[in-house]
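During data preparation, a discrete fold description was generated, and the record follows.
___
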Amino acid sequence: MASPMKSILGVSRGPFLLLPITLIVSGVAASAYDAQTAIAPLPAILALIGLVALHIGVNSLNEAGDMRSGIDLHTTRTPFSGGSGTLPAGGLSIRAAMIWGLFTTAIGLAIGVWFLFQVGWPLLPIVLLGGFAVLAYTPLLLKIGVGEIFAGLGLGGLPVLGASLVQDSQIGAATIAACIPAFFMTFNLLLLNEFPDEGPDRAGGRRHLVILMGRRGAALVYALAVFGVVASIVVAVALQVLPVVALVALLPTFAAVPAVRWALSRPREPVPMPALGGNVIWNLATNLLMGGALGLAVWQGW
């Protein structure tokens, strides 16, 4: 049996916790670019802790829910889909995973409430939507066809907006421009990972886009969302909302090419492992390069 710490990291989906780091980097850098001011380290660190706690919360609650529904007993696990395997292997009980998920969610929401007193009511919709997304994701949102949208919001667009708000108490044009690709990429991060689990998810009562639209339709949505990321960055630079150096954030799009090629040519076949891996790299690297480009623009005074 795995050690308690390894089991906790398992249901927390440790390798996936890089995503919050990239989102906070992007949001904080966008705020600095909008306001042309230096970064405030403490709010950035607290925002990161809160977002990581919420991400652990949704992951742990999802693992518990998938074990209870039987989904995780029938998935074929990959490094990117199918659950961690911690609960089916007996590493933790469903109850322990639920308690851990609710505890970390409470930490994330407590930090959000603290920020409310510092920033004010503009942050309230982000805190409420974020909390709702975490608590309702597995029992409700994944069953009514909006799981991908709330994933794109809760672990994509909203954290970028929130990280900017806690820095400067306002949301500027560059922050909005940075949150749009973040939304599309996390939307796609979940969407592509749903293809390998289609059968068990259907049997477990889920109604995500792969089930509702069919593999070909959902694959087309994936490809369109990749195009949406590219288009949103190019348009923002063309409108001078983002600096020209932000175009460097387009470079990781090459990592999404295997997934797009699969989506447009053979979506009824299993998703190739390079496509699943490239999808993750594209997501993380694009957010990081966006943040790096905006930070460089502030430093250089562009």
